[in-house]
Amino acid sequence: MSNQIERFEDPGLPEHIHRNADADPLAEKRAEKQVAILFLLSALGTVLTIASYIFMKSDQYVYFPVMGSTNVQQLFIGLGLTLATLCIGLGAIQWAKKLMPDQEVIAERHEFRSEEVDREELVATFHDRAGQAGIGRRPLIKRTLGLAVGLVGLSPLVLLRDTGPLPGKFFETTNWAAGTRLVLDPAGTPIKPEDLEVGAVAQVLPELPAGTPRTLENIGKDAVLLIRLRPEDFNLDPERLSWTYQGIIAFSKICTHMGCAVALYEQQTHHLLCPCHQSTFDVTRAAKVIFGPAARPLPQLALMVNADGYLTAKQPFSVPVGPSFWERNSANG
Amino acid sequence: MKKSQKIGGSVANYVDERTGAAKWVKKNLNKVFPDHWSFMLGEICLYSFIILLLSGTFLTFWFDPSQRDVVYNGAYAPLSGVSMSAAYASTLHISFDVRGGLLMRQIHHWAALIFMVAIVVHLFRVFFTGAFRKPREFNWLIGIGLLTFGIVEGFLGYSLPDDLLSGTGIRIAEAILQAIPVVGSYLAFFAFGGPFPGTAFIPRIYMVHILLLPGLFLALITIHLMLVWYQKHTQYPGPGRTEKNVVGYPLMPVYMAKAGGFFFIVFGVTAFLGAVASINPIWLYGPYTPGQISAGSQPDWYMGWLDGLVRMSPPLETHAFGHTISWNILLPGLILPGILFTGMALYPFIESWISGDKREHHLLDRPRNAPNRTALGAMSIAFMIISLANGGNDVIATHFHLTINGIMWFTRFGLFIVPPIVFLITKRICLSLQRADRDLVLHGRETGRLVMMPNGEMIEVHEQISDAKKWTLTQHQSADALPAPLPESAKLGIKGKLRARMNQANAVQVPAATVTEFKELGEGHH
Ligand code: HEM
Ligand code: FES
User: Fold this and answer.
1) Does residue B321 form part of some domain?
2) In 3-state terms, what secondary structure has residue B313?
3) pTM of the model
4) Which of A112, A227, B372, B418 is most buried by a 10 A CB count?
């Protein structure tokens, strides 16, 4: 090309500018002192930590704005540790910046690619050695080795089988059966319709046979919310209406999304809200999902009152409660 | 010779006679490390990891990883007599009965947050400056691994205390397992040793949290640093800095002092946060029970974007042939993150495939000089922020008097609309910054001084910039750095055409100023 474009050129590393402390012995002394003071402060910090550990009371709380009520001993142990570590750091950096040589140096880089001869030699050697093993010539060995290595990884997987039992029907069942009484959580007392005013909410669990412990695993499936509305607020089909009792309606408390407890009830709107991902269920319409990621309504528990006047389940849940799983047949909700 | 020197000398002699280390050490004391604030981000990751090891080990001395039922009777009166898991009780014990225990818990948690922030910001630094390019692709992959395992490790960590909040997180994790088609219920039962919550989960994740993953981190971090050491650090462009050299401070004493000092500063800052800033006050939440929940349940921030995606997911489930598939869980919880992380891991290879650039790179890009990459990065940040915002939609709603409904619809659409817009805007900004660089080189800096020309016209005096600056602003297009764009030919298949198209888009650059132009302009002025 005749009119070659001329580009800017690298002027090279700029000249080194000396610092104060390099030329001026006074500035140097001053920097030295600063570093020493920082290291001394660090030592002081350690003393503070140890002293707070030994001499302070561990149950003393003081209120500080923003921080709130604070345990004084923990605070001072922490502040001591802060001082002790921070000052070592600041001292070292100050030392490096003010007193150590600050002239940048240059090192060469080399390409990582090996020399052509080395690469060729490697390939040749590799083929030669592979030939010695004869892996290419002995397909029987190659294939059986492949099989063996492929299979050997299976045993640890199989051995993991005993990490837990099989789920069986666990996800499909709860402890609610026809005639199970509702008992308040955590008091454990059965309840009558009159115990619940309009607008009130209660968390209940199924009454268990005497001697059966109440496990968290069961609560995770059994928890039910009782809500009392005015009967005219309902907007239910006749079957679902027959599952309520004098305005009292019961839903599984376990979110059909990912299993959090659906705990927030808004009285004015009759909405149940799950705080995890804000799925919102309309109580008047059989807990239909009106907002959020949940795909199914909360299962409704059919209620009745037994001969003694206690609230009781009319039948088990008609569908599995809680989040979805592969085996769940969701044809009926 | 002083006595200390004598001892040092004989120790060194002893070691060298057995290992021959002297030569290697001698060479590496002169190892050169370039200096830039953004190179400290990786150091913060390393230091906070060390702090996590130290504080975590302290916690293990008292923490009891068991879901066995106990009745609490420690120093925290409001929970006295309450039945809870041993894990929760021992965390209360650490917080209220062990001197400095609460401090260590808080240091551990703050260090975890700093660790994750530093990893993410470090990753962005590496991305925006093109530090992942050949020969550093391995370290990019290791970094993505550390990020992924870091998220898991953090989640397992705050699941350990077994308070109401962390139990809720575990419950959600169980639902994700359960949602996996075909094998979900089995996986959930195997992971939890039976029904949720059971008594097996916390002991198991404890082992993973304190042994398996820290061991993996240690291995990955070691390889990461060995590669940095061996490949030498990248450097920012500037006078005297080339692809063939590395300019900086020698390992001993300057880099050692700075890096060592910086470790203590990170430790100090973390200790300060642990001392004054309460984090995860588990005693306020109470023990976990599946029937209860605390309002405003929020995961740590590095899980928040996932939570946000889950929250905005449409309520989709497939019900067919007696089976249920929860798209509302699988899509935001597994499929989308899977795609994002795979794409992120493969990015260096995708970029070099598009550009056809197979050369080694040791000089970093200024982000503006790689407009597409920078725009892609900005777009990902926008995506993250939008999903994170929806993860805190309840908090945002109450703070700013918005409706959760409004936020959700905004983020649902925003997730698809905002990032492309951010891409376009960022690309524009990059190109106009390139133009500004070009003007600066050709016309110099505005001084704000006005002079009157003989013909009465007022003009502003421009001051030429230094040769060093001129080089810094033009070096990216020095003659040997211009790959020719790929032609879009009819013979290429779909993949080839796509590549050519992206390659051309990638090649759009404002030409850097040249001396030729500079001289021509100068002549024009005279
Ligand atoms: C990158 C690494 C790590 C991360 C991100 C991490 C994160 C966490 C988090 C967020 C917690 C909850 C703390 C709380 O608020 O109570 C935690 C708890 C815990 N971690 Fe780690 N950790 C890491 C490494 C380690 C290591 C190496 C150990 C031990 C050798 C450890 C031991 C513990 C213990 C015993 C607890 C439970 C005690 C408690 O919660 O008070 N961690 N971890
Ligand atoms: S668990 Fe209830 S909305 Fe997600």
Assistant:
1) no
2) coil
3) 0.92
4) A227
